[in-house]
Structures
1.
Amino acid sequence: MKLSKKVLGLGAVALLSVGLAACGSEGKENGSSTKSVGKSVDYKITGIDPGAGIMEATDRAIEDYDLSKWTVTTGSGSAMTASLKKAYDKEQPIIVTGWTPHWKFAEFDLKYLEDPKGSYGGEEEIRTIAREGLEKDLPEAHAILSNFHWTEDDMGEIMIAIQEGANEVDASQDWVDANEDKVAEWTDGVEKVDGDKINLAYVAWDSEIASHNVMKIVLEQMGYKVTLTQVEAGPLWTAIADGSADASLAAWLPITHKTYADKFEGKFEELGINMKGVKVGLVVPQYMDIDSIEDLKE
């Protein structure tokens, strides 16, 4: 299936869902069309990094929906997508933790499971946060970071290019080169500096890899020496709060990173929303005959 170039936003791509075992080739091979969805996936949800906010929300969903038989496996985002691809290619059932924007919605025909209890919240925002004192110490960078905003389609162009084999730096540079007008909005009225250092922290989600590589290029064009530090969500927020990192474009709020935002309240500055309408939840292939998290109890 060839990747579409504009299909990573919530309005442009099908959302995920969990499937009954009566789906795909596995049900046919095993002759078990009546097997419950739980049995078909061994009551397992394939997750990502244990410190990610989506994992906390998934633990909350298991409690909210009384899914006592279910477990959530941990691993990297790339391991999750590898498991998804393996199952998808064989039309086997699988349930994963998912978020948009993400290239997997362009690569596979997926859907979100409905979440009537609101364990994952509704649409979210990706916000830019900074350590206290950044505006005083690095006013030009503070202004650029505060101005930064873009769309799911913008981010999607980079994620798709990376998925198709491009280096993340090259893909980001290509986007910057092709979108000088948008970059000019972020840097409007900002003077260049001479080698000032700045450290941006990010989580290893494909979305955040895209945004932070773009910002690194933009800040370097303005004269900064930029370090990108990849960490999990908890250490990211800790680093911003204690000043060991200067800023991050990767705060998913109000739900996904709520625990960290509450924990470090008063110890960071929120610079603004850099993307609206993002989403997290449980995702399944469209071929699975299931639509809601509530159905996992069956």
Note: DSSP finds 13 helices and nine strands in the chain.
2.
Amino acid sequence: MPETNIPYVIRAYRPSALKEALMKMYLIRKFEEGAEESYMRGLIHGTMHLSIGQEASAVGSCMALTDEDKITSTHRGHGHCIAKGADLGRMFAEFFGKETGYCRGRGGSMHIADPSKGNLGANGIVGGGFPIAVGAALSAKKLGTGAVTICFFGDGAGNEGAFHESLNIAAIWKLPVVFVCENNGYGMSTSTERSTAVKRIADRATSYSMPGAIVDGNDFNAVTEAVDASVAWARAREGPSLVEARTYRLRGHSKSDRNRYRTREEITQWMERDPIPRFADLLIAHKVITRKAVRDLEDAAAKTIAEAIEFASASPDPRVEEATKYVYAERVPA
């Protein structure tokens, strides 16, 4: 078989890295399912935004990143956090409002951050990650660290003013940032067909003189190839890029979403394009892994999530008298 017919990820990554990527995809799926079940049992208060069905976009985009590289995330950010190497027990502890959580139980689902892994945090503000990503990329350029920032955002955020302002300044200053749009077709209950003038969000890259690409967001190989190229472009000091990953969330916008704006047929069609079995089948076809080993990975992921939930459940609650501690920034003595 000619090398050109071999999928990019098979040529570019060691089998161990590809197996780890599949494991992360299973961990994201099992985490989201565990979070959903915990919510139904009353263990989690408030709401949450699940990324079931978008695992390839999260993991594939982070393949070329190190802990020194940064990401900014969205309200639908659990997958990004796990893809960047987060501790699952601390994530669930944050969900449960426990002292051992990433934000000591004060932030919840939409504000998890892990600077040690380069995760600058999820953001409850639509488009809130744009200026943060640009700032991180500017810092990397000024300090000469060689680090790259990936800014995840949804299709709805592409219509925010921060999107246009951030892409413009990133292009002018040739900043090492990759803007990754996870276009799942809906901003809450509004279809992109009704809210967005352009058919392809990636086409907006032309307006800011940067490369743009559109890929099947449920195809791990396609996502990785496109984002890896953009990361390499940024590391070479060539400036920013925009990648649009066409994907789909199999759950509603949030836990209060009654899903009345989508048909059962549409959801079923996207379920048939589930990114996890697609990636597993690719690895099996190229003898990177066996089908039994795939089942073992899925079982191991389920066990890891169960242990994470157990850790979170057993963790201490914050002390009432310290409810406002760690919430506001404190002045550092001179």
Note: The two ends are 65 Å apart (CA to CA).
